[in-house]
Design brief:
alpha+beta, 61% helix, 127 residues, Ribosomal Protein L30, Chain: A, 6 helices
Length: 127
């Protein structure tokens, strides 16, 4: 709890009008060589600085099949192999393109899957 002296000071400040509070702030600024606007500006600038920090590097990627291309059967077989789905599920995934085939995988795995699907004639995107 605040000392009696500090509590009296707080009570005195509460009793001041807006104009008197404005004069008090100006007097404190002059007496101590500080500025209330700098303190407010520094606090307001902190969130902006946090937002300006570099975004974290992406570590998880999704492989999205945009279209099967001309060799649909080969793409279906690859999707089956990549996902472990049944032949019917793989066909459904290919038919529903654009569709994510694999999600939240490493960049190397995503690139390898992308290369296989493109080699089979599919249009693929890594996100």
């Amino acid at each position: 709890m605040a000392s009696e002296k500090i509590q009296q000071f707080i009570d005195d400040i509460k009793a001041l009008s807006i104009l008197e509070l404005n004069d008090l702030v100006k007097a404190i600024e002059e007496e101590f060589g500080v500025s209330a606007t700098i303190a407010v500006g520094a606090v307001a600038a902190a969130p902006a600085e946090a937002e300006a920090a570099a975004p974290a590097e992406q570590t998880e990627f999704d492989v999205v099949l945009k279209s099967a291309g001309q060799n649909k059967m080969a793409v279906i077989k690859l999707v089956k192999e990549i996902t472990g789905a049944s032949l019917m599920e793989a066909k459904k995934m290919v038919d529903e393109a654009p569709k994510a085939i694999k999600e939240k995988i490493s960049k190397d795995d995503a690139d390898a899957i992308e290369a296989k699907l493109k080699e089979a004639g599919a249009e693929v995107e890594v996100k």
